[in-house]
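Weekly structure sync, notes
Attendees: PL (lead), two postdocs, one rotation student
Agenda item 3: pending single-chain targets
PL asked that the sequence for the first pending target be pasted directly into the notes so everyone works from the same version. It is reproduced below exactly as submitted, 727 residues in total.
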Amino acid sequence: MPSLQLPPSAADIKEALRKYYGYSEFRPGQEEAVGAILSGRDAVVLMPTGGGKSLCFQLPALVSEGCCIVVSPLIALMNDQVEALRANGLPARAVNSMNLEADNQAAYEAAARGQLKLLYISPERLLADLDHISHNIRISFVAIDEAHCISQWGHDFRPVYTELKRIRQQWPHVPVMALTATADRLTRDDISAALGLKDPYSYIGSFDRPNLSLQVVTGASQRERLKTIASLVDKYHDDCGIVYCLSRKKTEAMAAKLEETGIRTGCYHAGLTPEQRHRVQRDFVNGKLQAICATVAFGMGIDKSNVRWVVHNNIPGNIESYYQEIGRAGRDGLPAETILFYSYSDIITRRSFAEESGRTEINSSKLDFMQRYAEANVCRRRILMSYFSEDFDHDCGNCDNCRNPRPKLDATILAQKALSAILRTGSSEGMNVIIDILRGSGRKQLFDKGYDRLPTYGVGRDLSAQEWHAYILQMIQLGLIEVAYDDNFHLRPTEAGLKVVRRERPVELAVYVRPDRQTNKEPSRTRRAKAADPELTLHDRILQNLKAQRRKLADSEQIADYMVLSDATLHAIADKNPAALRDLVGIEGLSLVKLAKYYRPILLALKHARNQSGSLPAGLSEEVSGILFNGGMEVEEIASARALSASTVVGHLCRLYKQGENINLWRIVPQETYYTVKTLIDSAHSDLAMQGAEANQTPGQYLSSVYGIPGSLYGRVNAIRQALEKK
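Predicted structure, written out during the meeting:
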């Protein structure tokens, strides 16, 4: 049954956001998703890679009673998220086949004792242990990550996910949040129904990642590909990138070639042992590799923020996979490059994969769209947006087609003709029939259906079938027309297309060029070799020192660099160039817990960047306790985060109060409790004085034995009393 506890207030949630994550504001959609699940409502959250999807379930779990069950399909994903949470002082564990069974049972026991807020588990293990979990663990809600796996239309359909509908049967009153980064319209519609969600809150974030540069290179030789990748490594020498390949063999071959050129490269695919994959992944996230060559098995759940480029050596099988994979670049919001090498031989290979998949029709149609993207002459970002049913009515300026545009024509009337033909057939025909109608074909099928009597019959005789095919493809790519994959691939106008029909929106299309007149000339790529610059700016020196300190901390804690502090946070510190400890407060991504753990190495990095000698100023330990306390952390939380005793923290706070700092002492001990215990302390001193040498007890021992007052409370009241008397 649901908890009767009132959900946290908006102020409580914002305080938790600041305390645990170091952010002052939510990203779009996060606050609403968090609020929905805390109010007991189901939710479907679709946010692109790097959009802050995990926070939508992690934050409400931290402020709720009980433990959130997080269903995750990949062990690497769940282990990385658990490591990152634990590095931030948050109670989370994972149950999976890579653990010793004793560790899995220990995780269950910790959850049963109320010591965990998040328990990550694979769908197979969850389904096997449903009864055990039900009887032993108080569940706050269930989060299902990578929820597109449940849909038959999803690019990564997994039959075991369809069994997750048992969650609703087992726990009818527990809210469920389904999350995914990539799902087209059909997949989104399928998720709620397949999980049995009840009137879920739905958030569909923008798929636009404007910091990602998009480029497709056609017909590049192996030598040209290696040269391009080497130029990216040179350009982003302090960062890293991913090369996605079609097969294990191609992955190993590409890695070997890059190694020959002196690039520190790793190889990752399903043919390696779990230990080998884990080692390569560790080396990548820890910055030991400049490039990693991988199959699609690599990357899910890795929150490495400084991936500056992603190269596809072969075309992916669908837009969802492509979008998810390029989304692993530029997660910090800084510019990143993506390049897709395209050859028709890859299409032939992908076609054979689709035919052997058991889902031939769906996978073939998705490959068709991927091929149209690769061959397109219009803004590539508009194609991506339209695939995910997002209206994007302008060219992005950050793709190869925008940087080197083809001549455009005003195609408003042309588009109206095509859209009118689609509407007049009741959106019940595919592309070939629509083209036949427009060109006034004499095919018997058209006459049998009466299409020869439509007003649009023959209005497009001035264009060839090839021209109409190219222009309708552009209209699909621009989001004016959608293909109903679930309805015999019929064409349907979108809302944007209907605006064109109503003359509310003009249309521009790239002028059709016959294939034999096209060239393979590619736009030149700006390259920047690694430059030796002895005169680094202060900003760069700070960044360099912060990264060096982060590396030491990550090594000592045996975690990935980004789990210490993200690149975006390091850049924010360097941008602000804080002069004192207090100036670190409010920097995005620097949570209170991380401030408590890392303030000294951060301040040392800043000091050395300014060429300042000497040690850090005295009194920092007390000051940081005060900052954490005023930031909303309680004494016990501060003590845990700083590996200090609670009495030491209380001493810090009381000394700060005496120095005139704004410290609310009544948060340490409630005022009423303070005066009650103070009176008893006075009484104890009086009683012990009367007993004299026979007393043989301290006031603290006397209060404990006579009134049951803990020694810690006695110590806190005494500390506050001294602070009040001596101020």
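Discussion points:
- The chain has four domains: 10-204, 212-375, 408-512, 669-726.
- The radius of gyration is 31 Å.
Action: rotation student to compare against the earlier draft before next sync.
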